[in-house]
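TA notes, week 10

Several of you asked for a full example with nothing omitted. So below is the full record: structure tokens for the whole chain, then the designed sequence directly under it. When grading your own attempts, check the secondary structure regions first.
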């Protein structure tokens, strides 16, 4: 029986592709998420264990704490994922250019990234130029 439940709508004011995927797949709420829950879920998604998991969680906690610009509020009530736009980390889509400031995906930018790769074992022209 197909699951016809509509996927949760993700706010255009959430500019992080990773967090958007977590919201769209129902792992976290699109609005307020307690920092403990967010770091736990991101840790699980990363597949790390032991000390590297603890390190990843500490980093995630730090990012989530400052991302809305109100660290104390984020610690006490959680990160507000649909209010990350215009926060201290938002570069307005100037990063990878995959997701623009209106939350539209630009697949041609993914093709652009593919140009930087090379088949396993081949040396890049940059490396060759430097050797
Ligand atoms: C392992 C976890 C995470 C991954 C892999 C990840 C990945 C990314 C990537 C690839 C971008 C750049 C998108 C682009 O330039 O097109 C981005 C942007 C962003 N992320 Fe995340 N993210 C993570 C966790 C978080 C957390 C915990 C927060 C805050 C609660 C956050 C907030 C943001 C914001 C505000 C931007 C926009 C920054 C900009 O304008 O370039 N991210 N993220």
């Amino acid at each position: 029986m197909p699951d016809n439940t509509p996927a949760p709508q993700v706010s255009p004011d959430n500019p992080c592709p990773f967090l958007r995927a977590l919201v769209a797949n129902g792992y976290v709420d699109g609005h307020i998420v307690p920092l403990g829950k967010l770091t736990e879920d991101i840790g699980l998604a990363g597949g790390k264990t032991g000390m590297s998991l603890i390190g990843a969680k500490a980093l995630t906690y730090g990012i989530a704490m400052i991302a809305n610009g109100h660290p104390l509020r984020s610690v006490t009530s959680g990160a507000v994922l649909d209010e990350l736009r215009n926060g201290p980390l938002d570069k307005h889509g100037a990063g990878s250019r995959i997701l623009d400031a209106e939350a539209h995906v630009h697949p041609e930018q993914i093709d652009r990234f593919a140009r930087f790769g090379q088949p396993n074992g081949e040396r890049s022209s940059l490396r060759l130029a430097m050797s």
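The chain is about 45% helix and 5% strand. Use that as a sanity check on your answer.
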